[in-house]
TrEMBL record:
Binds 1 [2Fe-2S] cluster. Pfam families: 2Fe-2S_thioredx. Its cofactor is [2Fe-2S] cluster. Coiled coil: none annotated. It comes from the Bacteria. Belongs to the complex I 24 kDa subunit family. NCBIfam families: nuoE_fam, PRK07539.1-1. Keywords: 2Fe-2S, Iron, Iron-sulfur, Metal-binding. [2Fe-2S] cluster binds at residues 104, 109, 145, 149. This is NADH-quinone oxidoreductase subunit E. It comes from Kribbella caucasensis. Residues 1-22, 227-247 are annotated as: Disordered. InterPro entries: NuoE-like, NuoE_dom, NuoE_N, Thioredoxin-like_sf. One of its GO terms (molecular function) is NADH dehydrogenase activity.
Amino acid sequence: MAENGSWNHTTATDKPVPYSTGDSKITETTIAEMRQLAARYPVGRSALLPMLHLVQSVEGRVTPEGIEACAGVLGLTGAEVSAVATFYTMYKRRPVGDYHVGVCTNTLCAIMGGDLIFERLKQHLDVGNDETTEDGKITLEHLECNAACDYAPVMMVNWEFFDDMTPESATQLVDDLRDGTEVKSPRGATICTWKEAERVLAGFPDGRADEGPTGGKATLAGLRLARERNWTAPGRDSSAADARKED
């Protein structure tokens, strides 16, 4: 415990983060929206995940005040909410910048250049993993598989995909984000801020769902070939099925 009586959370980089800042932005409006989310489910506690996203849309991270607010609405203990908030990596205990930039460093992306991209961005932004630039614009994090291996190496900005990246395109991307240039994902979506994205994930649409994502050429290559060559799925082998019944 720190001298001021608040707990400190120590990160992998050994930089203490105040457990509570004392300036929570959670208001009665936020509490009302939490109740609205809980009412969408037969069992209210099922709304905990979107409620934590709502907390992040307001606070920029999961704060102690946010945890207690969720607990109060759902009739849970703070420990029960904390157990969920600390289990999933999408919930952050450290403040996140305007743009959360993730670089996939899992197997395929890594060997296709993901590791090189991540190292280049660390140098370019002068930050380490899960750290934020001094201007508060970019938080950099290495991510596990994004299930987009057909576009490796892949990056994400506030959970929107950026495909077939290179160290050069990656540095240009973060420079554009820091400069305030409008950026669009190759799959169509306009990049919004971290807090705006978190509000959408909480279940409050921003009216831009039709911007993306879309299926790209690499993803649809198998379907295209099947149609060109009139391939169809094999029919059921009735004799084999009958044999299984006899067994």
